[in-house]
Amino acid sequence: MIIEVSGDILLTKAKSIAHSVAPLDHFESGLALGLREKYPEMVKDFRHEGHVHHMKSGEIYEWTGIDGFKIFSLLVQEAAPSTHSHGLPGKASLHNLDKCLKQLASKLESEGITSIALPRVATGVGGLDWDDVRPHIYKYLDVLETKVYLYSKFIKSERALET
């Protein structure tokens, strides 16, 4: 079930967060940067996993902190042209978004995750239009019993009303 909220997703009380990135992303802007600052070990693990297992667009990277909090990195963007530079990642695609959302829905159900916070994925650096992305989120996640807090409006330092 999707509940649209306004606020700062980093202040969520949900048991997990999903966000969108590219393979071998550097987490340099937006929510990714906030997650890098709050969970630096997650980014280290993500980069290691990306180099070892050659993660590809359309896949999901799942990380669990010592407190049990989960972060799902949805690889909706294409990788940067060079893995050795700080080049900008490619753009997101609805095809990759669908693949990631389908996997995310499956993981939420199979792992019994009761709540997740989700931003306007793929619309920042990813470059997709929110009006195009929003229906895809509803298609895959609104049918779940998991409470999906969809942060459709960002308000810095304000906790959303997650009911």
Describe this structure in words.
This protein has a single domain (2-154), classed as 3-Layer(aba) Sandwich (Leucine Aminopeptidase, subunit E, domain 1). It has helices spanning 30-38, 40-53, 94-110, 130-141, and strands at residues 2-7, 16-21, 60-64, 70-75, 115-118, 147-154. The strands form 2 sheets. A 3-stranded parallel sheet has the order 1-6-5, with no helix packed on it. It has a 3-stranded mixed sheet with strand order 2-4-3, sandwiched between helices. A hairpin with a 5-residue loop joins strand 3 and strand 4 (70-75). Helices cover 32% and strands 21% of the residues. The mean pLDDT is 93.
Give a brief description:
The protein is an alpha/beta fold. The chain has one domain (2-154): Leucine Aminopeptidase, subunit E, domain 1. The chain has 4 helices and 6 strands, in the order E-E-H-H-E-E-H-E-H-E.
Number of strands: 6
Overall 3D shape: globular
How big a fraction of the residues is strand? Answer: 15-25%
Q: Can you tell me the residue ranges where pLDDT is under 50 for at least 5 consecutive residues?
A: none
CATH superfamily: Leucine Aminopeptidase, subunit E, domain 1
Rg from Cα: 15 Å
Q: Give the strand order of the largest sheet, numbering strands 1, 2, ... along the chain.
A: 1-6-5
Structural class: alpha/beta
Summarize the main sheet: 3 strands, parallel
Q: Regarding CATH, which class?
A: Alpha Beta
Which architecture per CATH?
3-Layer(aba) Sandwich
How many structural domains does the protein architecture include? Answer: 1
- What CATH calls the topology is Leucine Aminopeptidase, subunit E, domain 1
Helical residues, percent: 25-40%
Number of helical runs?
4
Order of helices and strands: EEHHEEHEHE
Distance between the termini: 12 Å
Overall mean pLDDT score? Answer: 93
